[in-house]
Design a protein that fits this description.
The chain is of the alpha/beta class. The protein is about 30% helix and about 20% strand. The strands form two sheets. It has an eight-stranded mixed β-sheet with strand order 6-7-8-3-9-10-12-11, with helices on both faces. Bound molecules: iron/sulfur cluster. The site of iron/sulfur cluster (SF4) has 14 residues, from loops.
Length: about 325
């Protein structure tokens, strides 16, 4: 099956700090890829690079093909035309993403006008009703300012803006941060419904750090550490049989009734991106590291079942937690 979005060897650097290092993945129609990892692991930077939003002195390299076009090679004007129309962003923190002095309807119409797709005046009311209705909002929200809406409603307006031009790919950067648990689930359901409504089923990349929430939303999980995609695979397989010790520890850190209110963290700190340790960047924290781990960085290896992992000893992952 041809991928909607094919990312190959993505690199993002800020001076000596490599924020994203050799990230590759393919996103297919109907797929929801969850990118998880600790803060600073490169998840959000990956998404911003794909949107062409890394500003100098940041440097981006690699390739990201959408509709046969390499997003990373596009001139700024061409990238502006792709944004929202073919690849859209649901930003982190809807509180700050919307313009506080414009009504939500005016912001939606501005977006359409910028892409030469403004609905005719006579059809505008019905169009607005449809766009807001698809994300579970009533038409009167169009006349409201962002400060008149709850956090969950603002995030739905952001989803309405991201889907208004029916893009092929939606990148959602921690869209549920700062929302309570019930609203988090509602927002993710809205995102899933919005995806089903996209032509051809669309594809979503969701950035987050909550493995539990990801398990309920994603069809594929990609685990990031120190700018690398260290493991990627179908959500069920990855939870049933994690092959990277870091993935194993992330799953073990999920609270459960059996853990009787005791939370298990991952000892140690994420490495400096300016000065990462030699070999596998996880080796100072890895409970199953061997001598080679401090010397050689493991390659991105594809198993016979198609799952990928960056670890010298994937068979030891079960002993990590
Ligand atoms: Fe641990 Fe070595 Fe695998 Fe890195 S390569 S995760 S240090 S076992």
């Amino acid at each position: 099956m041809t991928a909607l979005l094919d990312v190959a060897g993505l690199e993002v650097a800020f001076g000596r700090a490599k924020a994203v290092h050799g990230v590759s993945f393919a996103l297919h129609a109907g797929e929801r890829l969850g990118l998880v990892g600790e803060s600073g692991s490169g998840k959000s930077t990956t998404v911003l690079a794909l949107m062409g939003l890394i500003r100098p002195p940041g440097r981006v390299a690699g390739a990201a093909s959408l509709d046969g076009v390499d997003l990373l090679a596009l001139a700024p004007a061409a990238m502006r035309r792709m944004r929202a129309a073919r690849i859209a962003l649901v930003p982190q923190g809807a509180m700050n993403a919307l313009n506080p002095v414009l009504t939500c309807g005016a912001q939606l119409l501005d977006l359409m006008e910028a892409h030469g797709a403004l609905p005719p005046r006579t059809a505008r009311h019905g169009w607005m009703e449809g766009v807001l209705g698809r994300v579970g909002l009533v038409p009167s929200v169009a006349r409201m300012f962002p400060h008149q809406l709850s956090g969950g409603m603002k995030q739905r307006v952001c989803i309405a803006m991201a889907t208004a031009l029916r893009p092929a790919v939606i990148l959602a950067d921690e869209p549920t941060s700062a929302l309570d648990v019930v609203v988090q689930r509602q927002v993710l359901r809205t995102l899933r419904d919005a995806q089903a409504d996209l032509p051809g089923g669309g594809g979503i990349v969701l950035v987050g750090h909550d493995m539990g929430l990801m398990a309920q939303f994603a069809t594929t999980i990609g685990v990031m550490y120190a700018g690398r995609l260290v493991e990627i695979g179908p959500v069920r397989d990855l939870f049933a049989d994690p092959r990277h010790p870091y993935t194993r520890l992330l799953i073990a850190s999920l609270p459960s009734f059996a853990s009787r209110h005791r939370f298990r963290g991952i000892p140690g700190l994420a490495p400096s991106l300016r000065d990462p340790p030699p070999g596998c960047p996880f080796h100072p924290r890895c409970p199953v590291a061997g001598p080679v781990c401090a010397v050689d960085e493991p390659a991105d290896t594809v198993a016979t079942d198609g799952r990928r992992v960056r670890c010298h000893y994937p068979e030891r992952a079960a002993d990590a937690a």
